[in-house]
């Protein structure tokens, strides 16, 4: 089965994900799709009917716990803090589903899930790394993000995860839920980054974890510099450091569809103008997620996550802050001789 | 041939000798070398303080622009930054070495490392995690600290002499020329944090979960000690919580113990870096680990016999006076207009 988690505002993307799944399910025997809603159901526009089952956080947590989490987190952090809970609940509500994919609402499937299910025949948990090679081009490379930024946010993306029903998966979800409830902040100095940085422990603490480096999996803004996509006889094939001509399974449009979203609003490694193959994917993605409801849903502010999201600055404001930070750093470190 | 080495300054030679003695006893086929971040010519050690093990001074291994590196780094950063440079030097100078193993000087080896030797026939790298199971509380160190400083402990790394390992060492060297600093907010923690990338960038990496490897204060919660009838030390995971480690409940022989942060002058303290355990606590406020005490007493005896007191007197020639920032109030005042402008620009 497929699970995603989103706010009301992100529902058009979640429906797009669901519709992309339907495209690849043969003989109408649909793979179940569940949307976990980290929002207040009563804020849905009147008369709204979801094409996919919705499970709201209100059914999983008592109101006092929701408001406590809401008060301490931003909407992004709140959603991360609820993720393990939704995954565990999805396994409970769909007892016939033995394998589950969690996908961020910004993901579009471009292939059937068969290769994922087949890896889960032997693995309990699948993780995808953001990058599979050092992105730097020579020792003078000043491109961003650099490798150490990935240390801050975690090397494995929490936007895509796949699980097989097993005691090891249960053990992981218990542990992860316990950690993210209190510690899903974004605070690099303290070693916090949503639900994602915690995944660094997963290959060590849990058995049957596979790190999938196949270039056709989880193509996104952060790895486009190491991957090329070619169209051959109606099939998109991806080549990268770890494989050649692998079928394109899924793309994460976070930061591509809305440049202010995600961890890389200031990335300098990919120039979309130079990547027509990405632009054509993006055009069809925009069609996938636009429907009659988009504008009405887009106006609904997230009900949970009272802390403000950090503002993404661009242009002169961004440049000015950057140079002023250089000055303050200099003032902090410059040697001043002792005046007697 | 397997080459084992450590890196230290003269003030830690008691530890390096103790490690060498343990290797000579348990793994006599290893060639053991002490990489020295110091200058023997300036110390002129008396004969009884000259180890029987070969020493290789850091300024002799051809690190490009080594003096600039010394200027950039403090003593901790420098001692860790040179690790891959030593490994690379051993690859070049000992082509018959099939494997290179690094141990921190404050480790002792208790057993012939047969399993490790076998692993290094198959795997390019062998790494040991700080902890194989969740930490039981938020005392120091806990999972959060490992997220900031590295999943694997770089007091140990085993490397086969193959193209994958050499490519890893080249990448690691390049990182450490400028970025072997401690700056948690920027994702940096000496040489160690970088090694998180090893299983992501390379396929042939073994994350070894053997409970007898790299036992230290950071994994005491999952490892308990006893001696069998022949006096061999055994490691066992605690019975509770059994659900975390049902496949690990049987005892395994202790392979190597890492006495990180232990001071023989404070024999009742497990490590200056941890707050979770004490050996014996009459006030019963902390969890007690009397089972670990004999392992530490044994180490203390060996360090003292290896002239720890004398070695401690030698200051490292690469130590620089600490940077003291003066005029903090003036600096703060000068920064004020900039910080105000930044806050204004960042507000909605």
Topology, element by element:
The complex is a heterodimer of chains A (340) and B (348).
Chain A: E1 2-6, H1 11-23, E2 33-37, E3 54-56, H2 63-72, H3 75-93, E4 99-103, E5 107-109, H4 114-119, E6 125-127, H5 147-153, E7 160-164, H6 167-182, E8 186-187, E9 192-193, H7 202-205, E10 209-211, E11 219-220, E12 228-232, E13 235-240, E14 243-247, E15 250-252, H8 276-289, H9 294-298, H10 315-333
Parallel strand pairs in A: 1-2, 1-4, 2-3, 6-10, 11-15
Antiparallel strand pairs in A: 4-7, 5-15, 6-7, 8-9, 12-13, 13-14
Chain B: E1 2-8, H1 13-26, E2 31-36, H2 40-43, E3 55-57, H3 66-72, H4 75-81, H5 83-93, E4 99-103, E5 107-109, H6 114-122, E6 125-127, H7 143-149, E7 156-160, H8 163-178, E8 182-183, E9 188-189, H9 198-201, E10 205-207, E11 224-227, E12 233-236, E13 252-253, E14 256-258, E15 277-278, E16 287-288, H10 293-305, H11 308-311, H12 328-346
Parallel strand pairs in B: 1-2, 1-4, 2-3, 6-10, 15-16
Antiparallel strand pairs in B: 4-7, 5-14, 6-7, 8-9, 11-12, 12-13
Helix pairs in contact in B: 1-10, 5-8
